[in-house]
Amino acid sequence: MATIYEVSKLAGVSLATVSRVMNNNARVSDKTKQKVLDAMAELGYRPNSIARSLASSRSDSIGILVSELHGPFFGQMMAGIESELRAAGKHVIITTGHSEEDKEKDGIEFLISRNCDAIIAHVEAVSDEYLIELNEGKTPVYLMSRFVEELSEKCISLDNELGGYLATKAIIDNGHQKIAYIAGPQFKADASNRLLGHKRALKESNIEFNEDLFFIGDFKETGGSDGLRYLTKQNEQFTALVCANDEMASGAMKYAREHGFRLPEGLSIIGFDNVIFANYLYPTLTTIDNPVNSMGHMAAKLVLKDVYQKKKLEIERVFEPTLINRHSVANHNN
Amino acid sequence: MATIYEVSKLAGVSLATVSRVMNNNARVSDKTKQKVLDAMAELGYRPNSIARSLASSRSDSIGILVSELHGPFFGQMMAGIESELRAAGKHVIITTGHSEEDKEKDGIEFLISRNCDAIIAHVEAVSDEYLIELNEGKTPVYLMSRFVEELSEKCISLDNELGGYLATKAIIDNGHQKIAYIAGPQFKADASNRLLGHKRALKESNIEFNEDLFFIGDFKETGGSDGLRYLTKQNEQFTALVCANDEMASGAMKYAREHGFRLPEGLSIIGFDNVIFANYLYPTLTTIDNPVNSMGHMAAKLVLKDVYQKKKLEIERVFEPTLINRHSVANHNN
DNA sequence: TTGAAACTTCGTAAATGGTGGCCATTAATT
DNA sequence: AATTAATGGCCACCATTTACGAAGTTTCAA
C-alpha cells in the first residue's frame, strides 16, 4: 500500500502538504491540491487510518456495544445508529457483550483501545459505578436503553415503566381481571421497570399481584413457551397474558395454539417492543412500540453534537412507548 | 491511560521487556515477568491496540461487511462469525454496504485501512473483477453467500440453485401446476440462482415458465405484498406461490390473508431462508433452510485456519439447503 | 578446574505511517 | 516596500514491535 511519503514524492510536494490536502484544515492552492489528488489517485493511495488515529488520537469511528448481534431489537438499534453516523462520514465498530459482565467490560476495553471517539453501549450486566468511572476516562460513553442518574446527559432511554403500565392498562381496559405476566430477567433494568409499570397498573385498578400468575423468562421465545406452560399448571385461571417482550409473546402464542387455546378469545396476549414480525404473527400482536431505531438515531445525533461539535441538533433523551393495537387482545367488556 | 513506557519505568525494565511479557513470544525470566505484571496491574495498564497494530501490522481483528445490520439473515450470520472468532480471542469490526457499489467499496476500504487481518464480506453490488483484484492486496477477503470461480478457496456459499429447485419441486410434488414466483433483485447472485433452480424444477416437470406469474421483489415484506397484488391482477390463475425469501413470503401471507385467501387451502406459499420467525407465522411457513449461522461459523473457521494458522479445522465451503416442511403448502394430489 | 561455546535474558534504537506546530521561503497583492 | 497567502522543511510525537547485540549464566569437554 502506498504511503503518504510516496504520494508526496510523486506529487513533488512535501509531506505536510499532502497531509493538509487530506485534512483540508489549512489553505492549499487549487493547483497543488490537484497535483496531490492526482498523485493519490495514481497510486491508489488510501490513508492508513491506524497511523492517523495513533498520531491524532481521533479515529472518526464510534464503538458500539450490543448484547447480541442477532434479533430484531439490536438489529434496529444498530441500523439506526449506523445510518445516522455514516451520513456524517463516521464509521462504526461493533462488538458484543452477551449480557455478561466480563464480556461487556472486555468489549468496552477493546473499543477504547481502538481509539474510538465515543462509545454507544447497550450494557446490562455491568454496574452503574463501573459506568460512572468509565466516563471519567477520555472516551465518552453513551448508554442506550439504560438510565443512570449521574450520567443522565448521556443516556438515551425508554420509559419502560410507562410501557409496562400501558400494556397492562390496555389489557385491563379490555375488561380483563385475571392477568398473568411473563417478565424478563430482572437484572436487566428494562425488564424490572416494565414489571414495575405492570404492578402500578394493577394497583391502580385494585387488582392484586398474584405470584402464581408470574413467571420470569429469558426474553426469548422459549421464555414465552416455558412461561405459559408453567402458568397453566398453577391452577389459577387467567384470561390475559402480558409478556415483557415480543419474542416471549410469540413463544407463548405458539405454545398456546399448540395446546388448544383459541387466540385471542381463549387467551389475550400483549407483547412489548413492536419488533418487525409482531405484525406478521397470527393473530397480529398487540404490543407496546419501542422506538429503538429512532433511539439509535438519537444516540448517534447526541454523539455528533457532543463529540464532533455539530451544533444544531435537537436531542431528546427519554422516549415514550406507545400502545399498538392489533388483534391479539380480546375485548371482555359487556 | 497508562502507556508501556510507564509500566517499564515502574517495573524497572526496558520497553522491550514489557512488550515481551505482553506477547510472551520471547523468553523472560519469571522474576522480571512478575515485576512487569505487577506494574501493569498497579497502573491498570491496557495495551493500545492501535499502536500495536501500527507497529506489528496485525490487529487480531477481522472486518465484516454485511448489507444491513438488521434483519434475521444478517443477524444470524454476524452472530455465527462473531462467536467463533471471539472464542479464538479475535475481535470483529462490522460495517455495512447496503447493497450499493460505492458503499460496499467504501466499507471494504475502511476495513483495510483499519489493518484488519482479514475481511469476511457479504457483498452484492461490486463486481467479481473488483473482488479478484482486491484479493491481491495484503488483506485477504472471504466471501459469504457468493461464489466466484477464481476465489473458490475463499468462498462460503449456499447452493442457491439447488435451494430454488427444492422449493419449487416441493410445490410440484404437492400437486401444484400453476405456480407463481416472486424473485429477489436479480443483480444479487443469490436471487438469480434461486430463480434458475425454480426454472429447472419447472422444466423437469414440463411446466412452462410464465412471465405473467413472475414478479421481482425487493427481498423485503413489501416485495411480497406488492408482488402478490401484482400477480393477482394478471388474470392468470395460480394455486401456489414461491417466494425467494421468507420476508417476502411473510409479506405475501399477510396480503393474502387481508384479501380473503384461505391459507394454505386457497394459496400455498413457500419461502426461503428459514429465518427465526418463519416458525411463528400463521400458518407456519414451509421453507428452505439456509444455514447462515453455520456458514458464519465456517467462514470464521476458514479465517482462523488460513490467517491464524489454526491447523486442524475442517472446512466445508458449499452448504446444501434443505426443505423444511411446515404448514403453508397444501397438498393438491388425489 | 577452566575456558570457550551456547544459550538466556534484557536493553537500545529504528521502524510503523501518519499529525501538527513552528519557522523560513517564495510568490502574489496592495 | 510591506503585507499576506501558499507552501516547504523539520522535528517531535503517538504507543508499540522487533532486529540486533550486549551482557550474564550454563554446559561441558579437555
TrEMBL record, chains A, B:
Keyword DNA-binding: yes
Keywords on record: DNA-binding, Transcription, Transcription regulation
Keyword Ligase: no
CDD domains hit by this protein: HTH_LacI (cd01392), PBP1_GalS-like (cd06270)
Span of domain HTH lacI-type: 2-56
MF terms in GO: DNA-binding transcription factor activity; transcription cis-regulatory region binding
InterPro entries reported for this sequence: HTH_LacI, LacI/GalR-like_sensor, Lambda_DNA-bd_dom_sf, Peripla_BP_I
One Pfam family from the record: LacI
Superkingdom classification of source: Bacteria
Protein name: LacI family DNA-binding transcriptional regulator
